[in-house]
Amino acid sequence: MEETKKISLKKIDENRYVVERHGAMRVEGIVYINEELLGDLGKDESIRQVENVACLPGIVSASMAMPDIHWGYGFPIGGVAAFDAEEGVISPGGVGYDINCGVRLMRSVLGAREIGGKVNDIIDRLFINIPSGVGSHRKDLKLGRKDLERVLAKGAQWAVEQGYGTEDDVRFIEDNGQMPFADPGNVSERAYERGKDQLGTLGSGNHFIEVGRVAEIYDEKAAEAFGLFKDQVTVMIHSGSRGLGYQVCDDYIRQMIKASEKYGIHLPDRQLCCAPFDSPEGQRYFSAMAAAANYAFANRQMMTHWVRETFEQVFHAGAGKLGISLVYDVCHNIAKLEKHIVKGKESRLCVHRKGATRSFAPGDAAVPEGYRKIGQPVLIPGDMGRASYVLCGTERAMDETFGSTCHGAGRLMSRGEALRRTKGRSVQKELEERDVYVKAASRGTLGEEMPEAYKDVSKVVEVVHKAGISRLVAKIVPLGSIKG
Amino acid sequence: MERYKILDHEADTGFEVYGGTMEELFRNGVYALFSLITETETVHPLIEKRMKTSGNGELFINFLNDTLYLWDTTGFIPGTVSVRIRDQNAEGLFMGEFFDPARHTLRQEVKAVTYHKFRIVEEKGALKATVIVDV
Fold first, then answer.
1. Which domain does A58 fall in, by range?
2. pLDDT (tens digit, 9 = 90+) per residue, B15-69?
3. Residue A2 lies in a domain
4. A3 falls within a domain
5. Suppose A84 and one of A31, A47, A88, A347 were both cysteines; which one would form an S-S bond, judging by CB atoms 3.0 to 4.6 Å apart?
């Protein structure tokens, strides 16, 4: 790897830094971070990536990054960039390979006491009921080409129509679990082929399903609106569009490398390849990406159904009685056509969030009615051992970050380093000592995903809370999880 | 000569691949990629698979992503690889077998081979490619 060249970040306040415009940058860079987390970035090249994104045509206001920023081929992870819909670009690298990788949080009526000694049983059964790890899938699920087309067009709505969950669920998903502009016809045969056996599978790496307990409430009113109370049992699902999404991304990067040349767009890095949003190439990618995003929504919806079934098996009670319902479902890797006020004028923008979460303010029509006075729920998973957070969107996010905030903890250690450090150790046992029961498809995953491999998510959410781009509502601690 | 070296990065993984010729570089790229996914040493050359890739200027990356597609859709692990390159086309002939959880171990899921920082350089009369993968 190359030595990192010196970068200059200037402090604006405790939680924000600016990369002043220089060279080919069209706008400045703004990084939401504090001194401590900045120290963790070390030799990381992610700030350079913020600069590179700032060079792309039609970028508006600033190339932004959230406190969980880390190096991420092309665009940084934790990056937010908005491009003018008429003059700007869309970039597959600005979304990433795992299109609509995202998080969903479910609540229950159960208190931690009622779940007592049943955590292990729940986790063991989740592990059986939900395919996780490379190559596994439900044997009872066979999807034809026509079915897949419907999945890509209708997202979570398709899953509900097939009996996975209820109509009520989709009201609590970003875009109601069905991205507009999706065109299954712009998804390649190869992507279909990769997607046909992977719907309703968790995947591996950092994907998980976690049973947790609400450990702390910071905002009573917001928590009440979100249906959260102290010691409540929750379930979080973190997964995405699987091989179908990876293939869509790769297919369009191949095309966009050519498109960038065609439209004379200079690229500081090929992974930033892009096309004007309003061009045939740009629109084709946008519609294929939306279709892949719908696949991810359907994927999480199906797993939700199996989570409910699992709880029913363990508690010998109907799902209704256990009250397992959606708090919300957010995308972490996505590009969206949104309207925002830029310099006092309403503008149509293509907002890229790569490892970032939408954080819409109270009153926004996109926020479900029951939450509209509070703001959109923002779901931030942490590592396996420490905590996850629920926050809510703010007016300040609308003003400063196109309604965006952080998405997670961010890696601190490379996977290889984590594996070396856990050699000879049992991460599973160590977690059990902390009262967290974990089951993983592969032992390697546990090593790579050990808690210390990540930044402390508490520090990450503290920055976005203090900077005012989302507000803390509740803290959830893990009781157990399944990993791929 | 060393075939490849795995690089380690915070968010993702990568490798350096070496080869006396372009064909050898491609071949070793496949070995490096699959060494991240599974233990290639235990793969028997039982089944033949052929693959043809047309490039977009980055034939090497395209070729590796196509082998990944083959793996993801069929579970095929290449044990031995030979490659022929003409203009912007690469043909791969693989001998290997399908993944069998009883005999093979899985290391990790590789989502894609990225274009980030990709380059092929000539060093001491041999070729070297640097590649970052998304895992």
1. 10-483
2. 999 999 999 999 999 999 999 999 888 899 999 999 999 987 789 999 999 999 9
3. no
4. no
5. A88
A431 and A385 in contact (C-beta within 8 Å)? yes
Task: Please tell me the distance from the alpha carbon of residue A383 to that of residue A453, in angstroms, as a whole number.
Answer: 8
Q: Is there a catalytic annotation at residue A407?
A: yes
Q: Please, what is the end-to-end C-alpha distance for chain A in angstroms?
A: 29
- Return phi, psi of residue A369, to 5°: -50, -45
> pLDDT (tens digit, 9 = 90+) per residue, A102-111?
999 999 999 9
Query: Could B109 and A194 be called an inter-chain contact, meaning their C-beta atoms sit closer than 8 Å?
Result: no
Kindly report the nearest CA distance between residue A439 and chain B, in angstroms.
Answer: 16
Other beta carbons within 10 angstroms of residue A181's beta carbon come to 14
Segments forming the whole domain that contains residue B51: 4-134
What's the number of domains chain B is made of?
1
Which ipTM value was assigned to this complex?
A: 0.92
| Nearest residue of A to residue B76, measured between CA atoms | A135
What is the rounded distance in angstroms from the CA atom of residue A326 to the CA atom of residue A304?
9
Distance of CA A149 to the CA centre of its chain: 24
Question: Which domain CATH number covers A117?
Answer: 3.90.1860.10
Q: What is the pLDDT, as a whole number, of residue A442?
A: 76
The answer, yes or no, to whether residue A365 has pLDDT greater than 90, is: yes
Tokens at B28, concatenated: 């070793």
For residue A108 the two structure tokens come to 């229950």
The pLDDT, as a whole number, for residue A443 is 73
CATH number at residue B62: 3.55.10.10
Domain assignment of residue A40, yes or no = yes
User: What whole-number distance in Å separates Cα of residue A456 and Cα of residue A37?
Assistant: 10
Q: What are phi and psi of A382, to 5 degrees?
A: -110, -150
Nearest CB partner across the interface for A205, out of B65, B108, B114: B108
- The single residue of A238, A305, A407, A465 carrying the catalytic annotation is A407
pLDDT in tens, A286-344: 999 999 999 999 999 999 999 999 999 999 988 778 999 999 999 999 999 999 999 99
Mean pLDDT value of segment A111-132: 93
Please state the length of chain B: 135
Comparing alpha-carbon positions, the chain B residue that sits nearest to A240 is B111
Flag whether pLDDT at B109 surpasses 90.
no
**Rg from Cα positions in chain B:** 14
With an 8 Å Cβ cutoff, are A194 and B69 in contact?
yes
